[in-house]
C-alpha cells in the first residue's frame, strides 16, 4: 500500500520533472553537449508575408531615419543601417533584408525603437520554412520525441498504465504537438500572439469532434500526467528574487485579483446552482493562471476529471479572442503601456500569451505583464494549500467527522505542486546564477513540449456537445461572467497601482 502511495500520478510527475531538471544540470555542468541544441526551430514567414509588411516597415523606418539624422554624428550608424534596410525592402531581397535588419538591431541597441524594429524585421526575414523542415531540425524533433517516449513510458509504468499501448499511441500525440508548434510559428500568428496552445487544442478538437478519438490512441491521452510534469519543470523558471525585484506592485495586484475574482466566480457559480467542486475549479482557473491552476485545484479537492476537462477546454477557448482583442482595446482607448501590461498580465492565462500580446504594444507593456503573470503563477502553491485545508474541513463538517489531521491534509495536497515549489526554491536560492541561466532555455523548451502534449490531449478528450450541455451550460455562464468581472477589476487595479494614481509610475522600459 505504501508503495502505491509513492507511485501516484502526482508523485511520478515530480520524479520525471526532477529527473529532467537534474539531467539538464548535469549536461550543463559536465558540458556533454550544448543545451541550445534541445531547441527546435518552428519560426517561419513566407516571402509574400514579408512583401505585405514591407510598406509598413518602410514607413516606420522613415521615422527612425528622421530621428537618427537629427542626432547628427551620434545617429549616423542607425540612419545608415535604416536606409540600407529600406532599400532592401524596396528590392524585396530577403537575404539583404535579413543582414541589414541585423545591422539596424545592433546599431540601435536594446530597448530602442530602431533596435526593436530591426529585431522584428530580422526575425521574419531569417525565419524560412526550409529551416523548419530541414533534415537537422526534423532529426532533432525525432530525438526529442524518442526521449519523451522513453521518459513518458517509464513514468506510465510506475503508475500502473499499459506501457505497450502507450508506446504505440504516444508518437501520434507527439506529432500533433509538433504540428501545433509548427503552425504557431508562422510570422502572422507570432505577431498576433496566437500561440501553440491554441493550435494544439484545435487539432485535438478537430479529431475528437469529427472522426472521434480512436480507442487505441487513448492510452497516450494523459492530460494531467503531461501538464503536472511540465509544471514541476516550470518551477525551475520561476525565480523568487526576480518576482520580488520586479516590484511589489505586481505582487499586490496578483493577490487582489486572485482574492476578489476567485470569490466572485465561486459566488456566481453557487447562484447558478453549480456544485462547489465545479465552482472551485472554475474560480481557481479564472483568477490565477488558467489550465495549470485548474489542475492544481482539481488535485487539491480530488475533483472529477470530466469537470476538469470541461474547465481546461473552456479556459483555452475563451483565451483566443482575448489575446487578439485586448491589444486592440489598449490602442483604441490609448491605455498607457505599463497599465496595459499589468492589465493583460492579470487577465490572460498563460505567460506566452502575455508576452505576445504585450509585444504588440511595447517592451514596457510586455515586461510589466510578465511581472504580474509571474506573481500570479507564484500563488499556485498557496492556493492549492488553502483549497486542501478548506475542502478537507468542509468534508469533515458535512460528514460530522472530527477535524482532519495534518496527515490527511498532507495526503490530499497535490504533490506536483510541492515539486513545483521545491524546484523554484532550489533554483532561486541554491544554484549558481550561471547554471540557472545556462539551463533556463533548455528547460523552458522541454516544459513547452510537455504542455503541448497536454493541450493536444485536452482537445482529444473534449466534445463541443459536452461543453454546451454539461449542467445546462451553467458552469460556462459562471466562468464567462467571472471573466467579465476579472477584466474590469484588473483594469481598475492596473490604473490604481501602475498608472500613478496611488504610487509613482514604475520605471519599466
What can you see in these coordinates?
This protein has 509 residues and is mainly α. Helix content is 77%, strand content 0%. It has helices at residues 2-5, 9-30, 47-70, 76-91, 94-108, 113-125, 129-132, 135-158, 163-184, 187-191, 196-208, 223-234, 240-246, 248-271, 276-287, 291-301, 305-332, 337-347, 351-359, 363-377, 380-399, 406-412, 415-429, 433-461, 464-469, 474-498. Helix 12 (223-234) runs parallel beside helix 23, helix 18 packs antiparallel against helix 26 (474-498) and helix 19 runs antiparallel to helix 20. The mean pLDDT is 87.
Radius of gyration: 24 Å
Secondary structure: helix percent: over 70%
Structural class: mainly alpha
Distance between the termini: 55 Å
Per DSSP E runs of 2 or more residues, the count of β-strands stands at 0
Distinct helical segment count: 26
Unreliable parts? none
Amino acid at each position: 500500500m505504501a508503495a502505491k502511495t509513492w507511485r501516484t500520478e502526482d508523485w511520478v510527475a515530480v520524479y520525471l520533472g526532477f529527473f529532467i531538471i537534474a539531467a539538464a544540470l548535469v549536461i550543463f555542468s559536465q558540458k556533454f553537449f550544448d543545451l541550445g541544441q534541445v531547441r527546435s526551430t518552428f519560426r517561419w514567414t513566407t516571402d509574400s508575408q514579408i512583401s505585405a509588411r514591407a510598406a509598413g516597415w518602410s514607413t516606420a523606418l522613415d521615422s527612425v531615419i528622421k530621428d537618427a539624422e537629427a542626432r547628427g554624428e551620434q545617429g549616423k550608424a542607425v540612419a545608415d543601417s535604416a536606409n540600407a534596410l529600406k532599400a532592401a525592402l524596396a528590392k524585396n531581397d530577403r537575404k539583404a533584408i535579413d543582414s541589414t535588419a541585423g545591422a539596424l538591431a545592433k546599431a540601435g541597441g536594446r530597448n530602442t525603437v530602431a533596435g526593436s524594429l530591426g529585431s522584428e524585421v530580422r526575425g521574419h526575414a531569417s525565419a524560412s520554412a526550409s529551416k523548419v523542415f530541414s533534415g537537422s531540425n526534423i532529426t532533432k524533433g525525432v530525438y526529442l520525441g524518442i526521449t519523451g517516449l522513453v521518459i513518458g513510458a517509464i513514468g506510465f509504468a510506475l503508475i500502473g498504465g499499459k506501457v505497450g499501448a502507450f508506446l504505440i499511441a504516444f508518437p501520434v500525440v507527439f506529432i500533433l504537438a509538433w504540428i501545433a508548434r509548427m503552425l504557431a510559428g508562422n510570422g502572422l500568428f507570432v505577431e498576433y500572439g496566437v500561440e501553440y496552445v491554441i493550435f494544439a487544442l484545435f487539432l485535438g478538437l478537430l479529431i475528437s469532434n469529427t472522426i472521434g478519438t480512436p480507442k487505441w490512441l487513448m492510452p497516450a491521452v494523459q492530460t494531467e500526467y503531461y501538464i503536472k510534469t511540465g509544471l514541476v519543470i516550470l518551477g525551475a523558471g520561476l525565480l523568487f528574487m526576480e518576482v520580488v525585484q520586479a516590484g511589489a506592485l505586481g505582487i499586490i495586484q496578483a493577490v487582489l485579483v486572485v482574492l476578489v475574482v476567485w470569490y466572485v466566480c465561486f459566488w456566481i457559480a453557487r447562484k447558478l446552482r453549480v456544485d462547489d467542486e465545479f465552482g472551485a475549479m472554475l474560480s481557481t482557473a479564472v483568477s490565477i493562471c488558467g489550465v495549470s491552476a485548474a489542475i492544481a485545484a482539481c488535485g487539491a479537492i480530488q475533483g472529477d476529471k470530466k469537470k476538469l476537462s470541461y474547465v481546461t477546454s473552456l479556459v483555452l477557448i475563451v483565451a483566443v479572442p482575448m489575446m487578439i482583442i485586448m491589444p486592440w482595446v489598449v490602442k483604441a482607448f490609448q491605455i498607457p503601456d505599463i497599465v496595459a501590461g499589468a492589465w493583460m498580465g492579470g487577465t490572460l492565462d498563460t505567460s506566452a500569451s502575455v508576452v505576445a500580446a504585450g509585444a504588440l504594444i511595447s517592451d514596457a507593456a510586455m515586461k510589466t505583464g510578465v511581472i504580474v503573470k509571474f506573481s500570479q503563477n507564484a500563488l499556485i502553491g498557496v492556493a492549492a494549500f488553502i483549497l486542501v485545508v478548506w475542502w478537507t474541513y468542509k468534508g469533515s463538517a458535512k460528514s460530522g467527522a472530527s477535524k482532519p489531521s495534518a496527515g490527511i491534509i498532507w495526503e490530499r495536497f497535490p504533490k506536483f505542486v510541492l515539486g513545483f515549489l521545491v524546484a523554484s526554491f532550489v533554483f532561486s536560492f541554491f544554484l549558481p546564477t550561471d547554471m540557472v541561466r545556462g539551463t533556463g532555455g533548455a528547460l523552458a523548451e522541454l516544459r513547452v513540449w510537455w504542455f503541448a502534449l497536454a493541450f493536444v490531449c485536452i482537445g482529444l478528450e473534449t466534445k463541443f456537445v459536452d461543453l454546451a450541455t454539461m449542467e445546462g451550460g451553467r458552469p460556462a455562464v459562471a466562468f464567462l461572467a467571472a471573466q467579465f468581472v476579472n477584466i474590469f477589476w484588473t483594469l481598475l487595479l492596473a490604473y490604481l497601482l501602475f498608472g500613478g494614481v496611488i504610487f509613482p509610475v514604475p520605471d519599466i522600459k
